[in-house]
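Lab channel / #folding
Pinned by the channel admin:
"Please post every new chain as: sequence first, then the structure tokens as a reply. Keep commentary short and put observations after the output so the thread stays searchable."

First post following the new format, from NK:
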Amino acid sequence: MFTGFERLVEERILAAQRNGEFENLVGAGKPLASEDMSRVPQELRMAYKILKNADCLPPEIELQKEIVTTEKMLSSLKDEQQRYKAMKKLNFLIMKFNTMTNRSIQFEIPQKYEEALVRKMAFAREAEKQDK
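Reply from TO:
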């Protein structure tokens, strides 16, 4: 016995079949591509598959994407104040990611201070040259 919703779905599927909407679909007659989920624990595979089908990413992956986007934005900024704000945001995101993943320190993503430090040192050298 079908419920009202199941009956509606069944009617729409049958109507689509009669109208030929299931003919010449992409990949028709080919085997489905199986996903390698061997590295995902057995108890998490179904949840990962549901998230993937819903086009949702785990929080760690979303955070990694935001880190990459912020890095690209930082490389294109010219204004020093905007660069400083973007670098603070980037370092916060990296710290959040490193804390969230709870991995060994050797696998953590390093924060981005090097570029700012090199620029400050170059600026200090230029100031020394001008003073002489």
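NK: The mean pLDDT is 82.
TO: also worth noting, The longest helix spans residues 80-101.
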